[in-house]
Please model this.
Amino acid sequence: MPAASFESFSVNRGRFAVVAVASLGVLVLGAASLPYLPGPVNVTTGIVKLIGLLAAYATVFMVGMRKWAGARVRYQLDDGGLRVLGMDGELRERVQWSDVDTYLIDTLHPSSSMQALSITRRRGATIRIVEGRTPEQQRAFRAFCGSFLGAVAGRQVAAPASAPIREGVSFYDKPVAHALGVLMLVLIVGLVVGSFFVGGFASEERPRLVLPIVVLAPFIYRTVFNRKDAVTPFRRRRR
Model:
């Protein structure tokens, strides 16, 4: 097969976990500081603080990922499989086709429109190749995924019974994720009803409801209202 390559961002999973916990800590601690002031002042101040809190969360996450947890690399496909190269050309990782178990092309996470190609190996960790934000990077990502799917199809024809490569299923399309999404939806509806109709929450506490709704809404939408029976390589992007 002709060689195909794509430049992307590789993430160290251990450092990613630290960054995720740190940014989530900013979100949780900031939520505890949302005011309990009466009247319109409470609503206005709460909304302003919520916007600032989400901006702080995004800043901590993005800076941590770009400056500490991630690095730019080049992924290259050839007849032997996938190579991961540093930007100075050194070989960082090599994955043979015989070591590829499943693949999945899906959005990076529920609140993102960016897609990622996840390659699960029979031995070793999963490799996740993320598309860029610019139109040129997105076109390059689609071309790279097309080359990958073509290589997989060619391998299946040549050796269908020998270490087949299967298309995976996203976590968000699995029954456990659907159940979690339904549970979150029921809890949020219950909180809103309790706050506005039953009186279970004081009116000055209502701004706190905005945070869980904003945080959980993408997950609920993806797992409850936008489930995929079969994952397709290039689904229409959400507007």
User: Anything to note?
Assistant: The beta strands are 4-11, 70-78, 81-86, 91-96, 100-107, 115-121, 127-130, 166-167. Confidence is low (pLDDT under 50) at residues 230-239. The first strand starts at residue 4 and ends at 11.
